[in-house]
Amino acid sequence: MENEIALKHFVSVENLTNDQILTLIHNAEEFKNQTRKVTLTEPVYAANLFFENSTRTHTSFDMAERKLGIQVIPFDPSHSSVNKGETLYDTLLTLEALGVQLSVIRHSTNNYYEPLINLNDDQHLHMAIMNGGDGSGQHPSQSMLDLMTIYEEFGHFEGLKIAIVGDITSSRVARSNMQALHHLGAELYFAGPDYWYDSQFDKYGKHVDLDDVIDQINVAMLLRVQHERHAGDENEDQFSAASYHEKYGLTNKRYQQMKKEAIIMHPGPINRDVEFSSNLVEAEKSRFFRQMQNGVFMRMAMIEAVLRGNHLGGLK
Ligand code: CP
Known about the structure:
The chain is an alpha/beta fold.
């Protein structure tokens, strides 16, 4: 396993090697148990640009940056000059001119980061970019904290049976996790409504009925129903929380059928009594809050990798 990772940007899990993933988990665990310390010998300035709503990812990146000694420069999209038509590229050039070296960005456009990191010859943006979630594309920091949480629990990925359940087509968390977990040797199952599944995911796992695998899986990874991404979807008009919960959700009956050592995960925010029976959110098998705690330490490890990749903070 490599000891240190250096990445210019962190926008996707798709091209990470298994070795890099395991090193990031190792480093995040060291931050968690306070055996790893990163000392910045030069100041680093970061901005978190969240053009879509967020509680966990935004606050967690903010916390991780501050724990690493990074100066966080406030940026509020709703009061920024983006509302006067300034492009994302020009916004980043502006922040860079002011001294910001690293930006974490969440945006509704899939692959928004491509033109920011694959520049034309006449463009000179040097900013390090970390993806806080792009549309239904990638959510690398959520995926990495999920991998850390699974690894903490089981100590390996090979052969683990993991069910990804729910609104899969809308989910950037599902996309990142299926790519990484498949690569790491997990056995993936997809469950939930057929109309929120796409056969493009068949290459990563089997599309099944949750009730056929609930007593065999090690991890139930539940996904939020993303109503805000269903404009024009007739299934959204006919959506019933009670019916969804009964057919696809983690009911108390399904919870009782799970293996003793199995765990339940959810990226949040939860629609209570839709994906998850409300009384199970804090149940013994639930790792919902552990995921959030791990998110701070994993994001510290990811940021450290990007600081190293950009020679920021005096880190080599
Ligand atoms: N899991 C996740 O991305 O949550 P937020 O939208 O609250 O950041």
